[in-house]
Design a protein that fits this description.
With 207 residues, this protein is mostly helical. It contains 8 helices and 2 strands; from the N terminus they run E-E-H-H-H-H-H-H-H-H. The chain has one domain. Strands 1-2 form a two-stranded antiparallel ribbon. A hairpin with a 2-residue loop joins strand 1 and strand 2. The radius of gyration is 17 Å and the shape is globular.
């Protein structure tokens, strides 16, 4: 049933699982951008949908990363709702406030992203030779994991990373002839810009 064709776009079929995962993903980031803790509940469903999506399309490299995404989602859910002393939002003491990365943390994030992307690209190139863009695919994957981690820690810079993810994904999907996903990624891009503005305001207000 998940591989049922809902409609076609430029001659390419859009499956039910494609539509479900896209709607869940957009809902999740929309809620996160509005500083809503309920984004994590949608995130659990989104991870499950992506697992089925990648399984259905035999994209095992991406499928293997879903347990990592699930773990980050659980971490974020706990951190957002169990802030330590001095980390509470000025608007809600039971919620984690938006914070910023230190210069040292930024260097670590950038170096770690390049390292993970390089190692994962090398692995994809060896294990999945059919992947047309193993290193570009790996850069997207590393950026997604970084964005998820920063989101779970409520760092406003996460939205800068998400914007890089959206732009890179649009390029990746267009390069392999996908039509539906670039449209979805464009919606993510618009939400990312709005969310970045919102979180910077929250950071300044210590909310």
């Amino acid at each position: 049933m998940l591989d049922t064709v809902i409609f076609t776009l430029s001659g390419r079929p859009v499956l039910l699982i494609d539509l479900i995962s896209s709607l869940l993903g957009l809902t999740c980031v929309f809620l996160a951008g509005r500083n809503s803790k309920y984004n994590f509940w949608v995130g659990y469903l989104y991870t499950a949908a992506l697992f089925l999506l990648f399984w259905n399309k035999n994209l095992y490299a991406s499928l293997l990363l879903q347990p990592v995404s699930l773990a980050i989602n659980i971490l974020g859910h706990y951190r957002w709702t169990h802030p330590k002393a001095g980390q509470q939002s000025s608007q809600d003491a039971s919620a984690l406030k938006v914070s910023s990365l230190s210069p040292a943390s930024i260097v670590i994030c950038v170096a770690g992203t390049f390292l993970v992307a390089g190692l994962w690209g090398f692995t994809l190139d060896r294990l999945f030779p059919a992947d047309p863009h193993p290193y570009l695919d790996s850069v997207v994957t590393a950026l997604i994991l970084l964005a998820q981690l920063l989101s779970s820690l409520k760092k406003w810079e996460c939205w800068i990373v998400w914007l890089l993810v959206n732009i890179t994904q649009i390029i990746l999907h267009l390069s392999v002839g996908n039509v539906f996903m670039p449209i979805v990624c464009a919606l993510y891009l618009v939400n990312g810009l709005w969310s970045l503005r919102t979180w910077v305001k929250l950071y300044k207000n210590k909310a």
